[in-house]
Every structure is written in C-alpha cells, then in structure tokens.
Amino acid sequence: MDKMKNTPPSWGQSSSVCIWEGITCNNFSRVISLKLYNMGIEGTLSSDIGSLTELQTIDLSYNKKLGGPLPQAIGNLKQLTALFLVDCSFSGSLPSELGNLSQIVFLSLTSNKFTGRIPASLGMLSNLALLDLAKNQLTGPLPISTGTEPGLDRLINTKHFHFNKNQLSGSFPEELFSSDMTLEHIICDRNQFTGRIPVSVGLVQSLTVIRLDKNSLSGPVPSNLNNLTRLKVLNLGANKLSGAMPNLTGMNDLRTIDLSNNLFEPSEFPAWISDMENLTALMINSGRLYGEVPQKLFSFPYLQQVILKNNSLNGSLDMGSNISKRLHIVNFENNALTSVALDTGYNNTIILVGNPVCSSNAQFSETSYCVLQQDPVASNYSISHSNCSSESCPQNLDCSNPYQGMMVMRAPSFRDVADHSVFITLVKDLWEKFGPVIGSVTIENPFIDGDNYLQVLLKLCPITDSYFNRTVILVNLDLSNKNYGPPGDIFGPYYFDAFEYNYPGGRSGRSFKVMIIGMAVGCTFLIVVLVAVGLYALRQRRRAQRAIEVMDPFASWAPSGEGISAPELQGARWFSYDELRKCTNDFPEINEIGSGGFGKVYRGVLSDGKLVAVKRARAGSFQGGAEFKTEIELLSRIHHKNLVQLEGFCFQRGERMLVYEYIPNGSLRECLCGEGGIVLSWQTRLSVALDSAMGLAYLHEHANPPIIHRDVKSTNILLDENLNAKVADFGLSKLASEGEEGQYSTQVKGTLGYLDPEYYSTQMLTAKSDVYSFGVVMLELVTALPPIHEGKYIVREVRKAVNKNEEYYGLKDLIDPAIIRDDFVVGLGWFVELALECLEESSAGRPAMSDVVKEIEMMVQDAGGARRDSAAAAAAAAPSARRAMPRRDASSSSNYFEYSGGYSFSTEIVPK
C-alpha cells in the first residue's frame, strides 16, 4: 500500500486487510485474491507482494499509471493461478522468476512497456493455458529448450500464444511446435520474425487461428498446412513468402483467408477455394493470380467480402444469380477483366477501377463500378439490451456514468460490421453474463481497424441512474481475466481496454479524514457562516463565466497574453477540455501517435464513435497563439480530399488543442522509413505525389483567398488507410492576399532542407516557395532519404548523379531499394526531371503547382497503362515464368528505363 496512490477508501481503515475492497481471504485470514482493476491506482508494485504466499489471483489491470519493474519476488507466489496486468505501465524485463509459478493457468501482461526477451523459464509453466504478452516492446527470438534449459516448446497444455505487436525477431524453430500441443491460437502479427514458417506447425491439429501477418517471413508455405482442418482464421499477409500459392485443400472450416502482399509465383486462381463453403472473407491482394474467378465462389452462403486487388485476373467476371445475401463488397481493382456480367440484382459495392472493362466500354466506365470507392470498415449504430418491458422495472439504457471500454477481437471470423444480427448475439450474451448487476448493456460503432482487429465500444450501465460502486465493479465486471468469452467462435480471442472510471467523490480518501473534517467544521461553524455568502457569490460568478465560455469559446482568447484576436471560423467545432480528455482516455502514452515541437498527438474516439487525432500543444511549444489561430482559421475554410480535415479545436484552461480526422498510416516520412511494415511501391509513390500536389494546387489556386503552406515536407504529408495522401499542419501558412503581385516580405520560417533558397535570401514569399519544398519531397519519394543525410543535401547529390543515358537515370546508388525491387518503375526519369524543375534556384523557372499536377497525372496514366499491358500479356502466358519488360531509352515518351521484371506489382501495405 505504501508504494501506491489512489487505493480504495477502505484501505487502511481496519487492521484486518480481509475487509479491504478488492481483497479476498481464506478461512485462515490469508490473502488469496487481489483484484483492483480500473481503480486509478498509481505507483509501483512492491516486492512485498512476495510475502503473500497464498495468493491465487492478481488482477491489477487498467491502472494505467501503475508501473515500474515487475518485482522478482512475484516468483514466490507458488499458489498463483492467474496474473492479469492488462493495460498498465509496467516496464523493464520480464523476471525469469515467473517460471516458478508452477500452478499458474492464466498469464496476461498485454499492453505494458516490457522490454527485452521472453524468459526461457516460462517453458516450465506446465499448467499454463493462456500466455498473452501482446502490445509490449519485447525483442529477440522465441526461446526453445536446449538440454536442461526450458523453452516455449514445452508448453504442450497451453492453448493461446498471443505475442502480437511486439518487436520479436528471428525465425520460428522447427522444435517450437509438436503434435503433443493443444494450441488453439498462434497470434504473432506485427513483429519482425524472419525465416520460414516451420513445417511443424502443421502437426498442431487443434489450431483454429493463425495470424503471422505483417512480419518478414520468407520461403514457401509448408505443404502440410492443410492438415489443420479445424482452422478458421488464416492470415499470412504482408510477408515475403514465396514459391507456389499454398494449397489449402481440405481446410473447409476456414472462414477468413488473407494471403495478400507476398511474393508467390504467378498462378491460376486456386481451385480449392471452390470447396470453402464456410468462407466469409477472402483477401489475396497482389497475389500474382490470373485466370477467371469461378461463379461458385459468390454463392457461398456466409460470404461477406472478396478482395482480389492488384492481380492479373482476366476474362469475364460473372457472379451468377445466386449471390450470397451477406456479400457487401467485391474488389477487383487493378486486374485485367475485359467484361462483366451484372444482370444479377446485386446492389452492394463492386470495385473495378484499373480494369480494361472500365476503359474500353464508355457506357460502363460511367458507372460507380469504375470509380474508386472506400472499403467500409466502420458502421455507426448502437445495440442495447435489458430484460425490462415496463417502466416500473430497473433499466438504464442511457446512463451518464457507464462502465465502458473497447472490446478488441484479434481474429474475428467475419468482416461485415454492418451485420446487426451478429452483434445482437454478442449483446444478449453479455446480458446473460452481467445482467443481474447492471441495468443495460450497449455496444456501439463496431469497426475493423488497420490491423484487421474488430473493435467495438462496450457500455455497461448501472441499474439506476447513478454510479457503479467499487464492489460491484471489482466483484462482477471482470472483463480482464477471461471470465467472459464471446459466444461461439465467430469473434475469436479478445482483450478489453477499459476506460477510466470516475467514482462518486473521487478515487481515494480515507474515512478518518472525513471525521477530522467534520470536527473542524464543528469548531469553525461561525467562520463558515460568515464566509458562506461570499463563497456562494464566487461560485455563482464562476458558473456564469463557465456558461459564457461554453456559449462563446473565444471569451478568453483576447486575455491570453499574446494580444491576438479571436479567429474567424467557418464550420469548425469547439470542444471542451473535458470532452477531449474523455475521448482520449485522459491522454495516456499508449494513445500517443505522434509528437513535435508543438507537443503531442493522441488518438481519440468521439462520443459518436468517430476516430480523431488530437494535437495537444505543450507549455512553451514552438507553435504560439498566432500559429494556432492561423491553423484554425485556414483549416476551417478549406475542404479538399487531399487536405487533412479539421474537426474542431479546444482553447480552454490554458490548453490549445486541434482535432483532426484520424489518418491511420502516419506520415510519408515514416512510411519511407518502413515504419509500421509499410513499403510503398513506385505506383503508390506516384499516387502519393499526385495527391499531395493536388492538395497544394487547391491551396494556391482554388482557396479563397489563396494560401501558401510554407512548411511542405514529408512529415506533413499523411497517408490514410488506402494510402491516399493528405497535406497537414497549416501552422505556418500565409494568405496570399496579404501580399502584392503574389509575393510579400515576411520573416523566414520553415524546415531546414526544404526551404526555398530564394525565399531564404530575399525574405520574399511566393507560392513557388511551396513548389521548391515539394520538389524536395519528390526526391524523397525516389531515394527514401531525408533532405539532409549524413551531412549531404539530397538536391545537390541528385543533381550530380543524374545521367539520362544510365540505368535508373544514373541514380541507382541513391534510389530506394524498394523501388528497384518493383516490377514497374515507369516514368522515373520524367519524375526526377520534374522534381529538378521544381528545385530551380529562381522561382521564375519553377512550374506552378497546377502544372505539376498535370505532369504527374500523365505519369500515373502511363504507369497504369503499362501495368494493364503487362497483365494482358501475363494472362496469355498462363503459368509461364517471369519475363523481362521491353527496354526503352530515356527519351521515350513513356519513360521506361532498362530493367527486367515480372508482370505484377503492389500498391498495398507490405513489410519492408
């Protein structure tokens, strides 16, 4: 207790700890259970925990400020069967003493800050059923037993290996898996594993879920994988797997298959898919598939999603007349389909952009099928349940203080979040579990996130319109410790991320303090009477000030000390500090998605379920009130698909916060560095350049008045879930109308490496200054290098290296290796020449941003045409081997360059 703050009020009020909240004792007054989840406890876990040798359960989950190292003394708890430390802040290495917990069944350390390797001693936990180490910072290989040294291969009774979202590396040794194992889930996505998938995984016939996506696994998929006939979810996407497309014949229980973004050999559309009648989602993007897709696929009764982008599927698409009623999206973007039969009555989404049928058939090209549509990943609705049918019975469908959090399903076997029926089943099942102590259960706004996890907001309301007390939550609402499992097997393994709960009267306090306060009040009664009127008046005054602030969020703007007038807004919403604190869950580090001189950016969920990014200025940030006002004013008046949308702002309690739409894939700079497992193909880089240029062209020529960004750089270009680019950060922007003849004198501001040298030397800012900065970004897209790298300026280095007569325009030593691996490097020289035009020393020699847009549009069209030509050739070649593209010199109008490659390329997220 001495190492913790904000413990429950009953702690310390009795010499018997057995009546303290959260503690359970046996008949001999020995502590056997310590359950204090979501109590707002801060501090560390004392090594004295080791003296409670009769402990059987520890659950300290959701205390986000409880952390520090996990004490070695925890290994003394030989009776411990469950240790749950979900979503805390524990750090340091996992103690090897965990291997002494011989009775433990559940070990869940999800969402902490643990570093170092997984201790080999965990292999001694013979009773372990759940091993969940996800969302930490663990590194190194998985430990395997050697001689007397234990390893994870000894955990034959363990059903769950959850290691996702760490930094684990190395290969999966053949010794890791065996036929003796009872494993059901292998969830290792978003790590850094390399090497081959071991053949031994095919021996574990109890497996129902395999997620190895977003690693760097290579080599062929084991041929015995189809022994896993109970498997329901198979995700091997975004690796470097090669060889033949895996044969999954006989795996007829499979519901979700994702083999996207690997390096498989070209192959005809797999025949075994025609037997997968339980299939709900099929995803094979960039799989080098050709041939026709069988009509039978679309008749599978549970099918919801077919995503086959960036292949060479050809011929006619005929979905037949017996299409699954659950099928909500079919995506054949960038294939070689020449005709489509759509006399089927199918009214949901079909995407055919990038197929010959969209360019050869004028009438068909005007339909929605030939316009890029966004894959729906979220659905805004809520489902509530209670057992009340009259006004007299307890129910609370809209309480003000629910116990809530996000349920995150890591391997759901469905994809249609708009299907209410499946979530009605979940709500009713939750009610069966928690109904006796709650007034209602509600789930809201389910969505599939960028990791293919299903997230849904869960709200449990008290029976009356009041708070839950600590006892009800600690005894009954135990979602952290696997006491509840979703119905059936459609939701898969989950974890619960609870929001902070504010108990009435605060989180802490001792009853003896209340007694002291009462005595003091009695002794000072006369004083209280004398000051009561004054306090009442002061309170009323503060209420009036708060009301004015809500009605007029700018009431406190002018007295901010900077002499800045309130901004003029056109549609931006004002948020209160409390709203943003709640939507980000009190700004925890785990929700931090970026930082800079201004402060930090946090992921948040608004009350309507919308994902947002909250940019919170820190005290003394580089962005002052003027820049803050500028960004609000500019973003509130501009609306373009390639500009980050401002949702609103907060200027309250000394806080300056901007609320933007949430852009999940981070900045272009991060993607070029390979962060998050993203590799940008050449085609995607052209699209990113085009998107960014279109956003800037809108600012320069269509905004009223025109706007000069003044800080164009790769960290200010963000990529959404479809890798569409959006220009961000308008804190340094200027209205062009403030100058004369398109230029005006101003203090030089910007970022080193991107600054226009003419602007720097003359202090005369023009729209061409943005063009120069954009030219630097274009060279970054080619080289993946920052503007200044190892003391060298990228512009100077490219100018020295350019040679039109050499391969890759003379830039082979500078070009990003990911581009060289791409099969379709079309328009490289053209792109570099345009970049160098943008980088002319004199602004008069640079093109306008609208001209840049036109040039890049033609490059994108050339690249798309080359891809379709190659796809058609591939279809005619059937399963022949890779063949070289034609060689053209740098003067060719299509700007091909000498290379040899196959006929498939990826614009998807794949590991570097």
UniProtKB/TrEMBL annotation:
GO terms for molecular function: ATP binding; protein serine/threonine kinase activity. It catalyses: L-threonyl-[protein] + ATP = O-phospho-L-threonyl-[protein] + ADP + H(+); L-seryl-[protein] + ATP = O-phospho-L-seryl-[protein] + ADP + H(+). SUPFAM superfamilies: L domain-like (SSF52058), Protein kinase-like (PK-like) (SSF56112). The keyword Transferase applies. Its EC number is 2.7.11.1. Residues 878-912 are annotated as: Disordered. ATP binds at K615. One of its GO terms (cellular component) is plasma membrane. It is found in: Cell membrane. Residues 903-912 have a biased composition (Polar residues). InterPro entries: Kinase-like_dom_sf, LRR_dom_sf, Prot_kinase_dom, Protein_kinase_ATP_BS, Ser-Thr/Tyr_kinase_cat_dom, Ser/Thr_kinase_AS. It is a single-pass membrane protein. The chain crosses the membrane at residues 514-538. Keywords: ATP-binding, Cell membrane, Glycoprotein, Kinase, Leucine-rich repeat, Membrane, Nucleotide-binding, Receptor, Repeat, Serine/threonine-protein kinase, Signal, Transferase, Transmembrane, Transmembrane helix. Residues 587-860 form the Protein kinase domain. PANTHER family: LEUCINE-RICH REPEAT PROTEIN KINASE FAMILY PROTEIN (PTHR45974:SF242), RECEPTOR-LIKE PROTEIN 55 (PTHR45974). This is non-specific serine/threonine protein kinase.
